[in-house]
Amino acid sequence: MKILLTGAAGQLGNELYPRLIRLGDVCAADLECRHSNAPDCRRLDLASPGELETLLNRLQPDLVVNAAAFTAVDGAEHDPETAFAVNADAPGRIARWTQRNNAVLLHYSTDYIFDGESTRPYREDDPASPLNTYGESKLAGEHAIKAAGGRFLVLRTSWVYSGHGNNFALNMLKLARRQLSLSVVNDQVGCPTWARNLARVSGKLLARRDLLKVGKPGRTLHYCDADATSWYDFARLVFGTAVELGLLDIAPSMRSVASRDYPQVARRPRYSVLDTAAIRALGIEPAGLAESLRACMEEWVGND
């Protein structure tokens, strides 16, 4: 099987690559390849339709795993054109290509397509109402994929972290090494998800031929790790684990603040917990937060 992996240098892409090479011949691609663990990563600008079409036509993949995204939530407010080009237009082009060529698309979306006003975890068929440009662009990408009518799986996730790249857990550790006191938002709740867990789940789903067989309609599923928490409590867990592992000598003092007192360009959903009942019905159980974070941070010890 020929596989195209976009976003190969990102948090998720780096975790996906070693799993995808077990399934076939993987072409890894990213806008910036120097952080990819794929030895033959090639440059691809998803905002350039010509580059994308050329690569697809040259490679003729049986499976496209689109782990690339414009994920700068505040940055999307300043540059909506690029956000929509990468998060909406490119997935639509990939989906139309896979439909024409009888290939399969695995695409990743986000909890930020929801407005955060729910009082229960969001199900796959709940109405979407994004609060910011990032969420709007990701939702537009979902719509474009569905409109193409091909074989696809959209996997929504939330609050992804890993041992590399730009993510909350790693950024908190870096800040804690420079500051004795930190202010962290306490009124936004979601489910932090280790990129490796998301990659493992992706591999399990791709191994299920019944999900992506010819003639079966595309599907949207939710996967996030278990244990909903606030950014504040997530940071506390990061610091406590870091002290236990020797990554920090002492945890910084923390002050919890409301979103209104921590101004950001883009609005964030107050509550964006995803319901994982559908994916659990397929025999996939979400991993726990504490053990996943610790396993991730244990690798930081070796790389520190």
Reconstruct the topology from this structure.
Elements: E1 2-6, H1 11-20, E2 25-30, E3 42-43, H2 49-59, E4 63-66, H3 73-78, H4 80-100, E5 104-110, H5 133-148, E6 151-157, E7 160-161, H6 168-176, E8 181-185, E9 189-190, E10 193-194, H7 195-206, E11 219-222, E12 229-230, H8 231-245, E13 253-257, H9 277-280, H10 289-303
Parallel strand pairs: 1-2, 1-4, 2-3, 4-5, 5-6, 6-11, 7-10, 8-13
Antiparallel strand pairs: 9-12
Helix pairs in contact: 1-7, 2-4, 4-5, 6-8, 8-10
Largest sheet: 7 strands, parallel
Please write the string of helix (H) and strand (E) elements.
Answer: EHEEHEHHEHEEHEEEHEEHEHH
Overall outline: globular
Q: Write down how many β-strands occur, each being a DSSP E stretch of 2 or more residues.
A: 13
CATH topology of one domain: Rossmann fold
CATH architecture descriptor text of one domain: 3-Layer(aba) Sandwich
**What is the C-alpha radius of gyration, as a whole number of Å?**
19 Å
Q: Helix share of residues? A: 25-40%
Weakly predicted, low-confidence segments: none
